[in-house]
Amino acid sequence: MFDFDALSNAITRQTVLCVGDLMLDEFVYGEVSRVSPEAPAPVIAVQRSETDIGGAGNVARNIASLGARCIFVGLIGEDDAGAKLQAALARESLIESTLVRDSARPTTRKVRFVSEHFSTHMLRADWELAAPASIDIEQKLIDAILPQLPRASVVLLSDYAKGVLTARVIRNVIDAARKLGKPVIVDPKNPNLAVYRGATLLKPNRKEFNEATRSRADTGKSLAEAAQEIMQLADCEAVLVTQSEHGMTLVPRHGEPIHVAGLPVKVRDVSGAGDTVAAVVAVTLAAGADWEAALRMANAAAAVAVSKKGAAVVTPAELRRKILPHAFLAAEEKILAQGSELDAQLLEWRKQDLRVGFTNGCFDILHPGHVKLLTAARATCDRLIVGLNSDASVKRLKGEGRPVQNERARSEVLAALEAVDLVVLFEEDTPLNLITQIKPGVLVKGSDYTREQVVGHEVVEAYGGEVRLVDILPGFSTTSLVNRARGGAA
What we know:
The protein has helices at 4-11, 56-65, 80-90, 135-145, 167-179, 206-213, 220-234, 273-286, 291-306, 316-323, 340-351, 368-378, 391-398, 407-415, 432-438, 457-462, 478-485, and strands spanning 15-20, 22-35, 42-55, 69-76, 95-101, 109-115, 120-127, 154-158, 184-187, 201-202, 238-242, 248-252, 258-260, 335-336, 356-361, 383-389, 422-426, 442-446, 466-470. With 490 residues, it is an alpha/beta fold. The protein folds into 2 domains: 4-323, 3-Layer(aba) Sandwich (UDP-N-acetylmuramoyl-L-alanine:D-glutamate ligase), CATH 3.40.1190.20; 325-485, Rossmann fold. α8 (273-286) packs antiparallel against α9 (291-306). The protein is elongated, with a radius of gyration of 26 Å. It starts with a helix and ends in a 5-residue tail after the last helix. It comes from Bradyrhizobium canariense. GO terms for molecular function: ATP binding; heptose 7-phosphate kinase activity; heptose-1-phosphate adenylyltransferase activity; phosphotransferase activity, alcohol group as acceptor. ATP binds at residues 205-208. Pfam families: CTP_transf_like (PF01467), PfkB (PF00294). Residues 358-490 are annotated as: Cytidylyltransferase.
């Protein structure tokens, strides 16, 4: 569970040491209207071009875009592309780069030719030497990396198999990081995951995972079993498998696998989405987030990244909007009645494979204890529905003189909170019928309840949902506030 704003603020206090294969990404955009008379090939009339920091450099840019500091170590050649990358990184205020030069290899450069009209890649041209760095360059990389480890909150290895992360470099970095108690996140390229032995988290995509495990792993169970084998082999704490539009699954060594569905988005370009995921996982774990919070943040960031052209970076504002989409609706749009309108919204969310959470209460005078409860409840799910007792229901439960505010006022105040996605009134004394209609994946109440005291726990657990008791803020009570306001005892 996590508070987005608190986590975002904590991220700004972190430093990530990122090591990996740097490359220059160029995008050439134009129109295609004819075929060359010289060969059966389309002719692109170039209109514009863009240059980006790519590869592991894009990971560094995403780290900085989220507000964390990044110490970056990479490799370039003695060429114009290398000079461009060095100058571009120098302009990034939150990135401190150390680039080892190797005159024996070109700086990795990729040029993509894109049809502006159809927004499709037509051709990619690569300049690279995909071979391990020489012994001399290896040592220079190690000498540049190890002194920076004490300054870092977390280490991120971004492997594109272009020569930086040799077996010797990997071993030196992971061993030194473990001695200092620094977590190590790896975005791997080598199918022999044993070379990353001792890392905290491995983040392969589905194709890389299947190649490494030599399995199809096409179900949640088979994926979890294969991931456990990897963790034994690589002595790591968790494996995160990204699965494009199908979301991502994290399998920890201890505990149950966590899966989050891909968020609905119009995909414009998948370039660099994996970089974004790696960066977000690194900064969130460094900031103290648990696996689930890191996974949900990374999943939302991936959705933002693929909606942009090129190897894009994600800002905290974009991430916030993706994680809390209903926070930007007008309050009245978030208030529904029981019935067909609620059913339609639930059907839409289920089609998107979103986890729906539910909590309830009178919320007569909203206080910090309520806000903490709702924020914690929202962190357990993708969409949070709050069941609100009607005026008649509150009167029966609390007695004459309650509620202090009518149901419309209480609904609007709740709906104005960004943690709340929907508010639904119910007339009964308990929300049992509403819970039966919604069938939430998680039912949330404060820790002042026991599981058996939570109304609807039998219903939710019967279909495989869970009951979650979240910490409450002591010292806050609507009843005591009302009594003090009326001159009575607290």
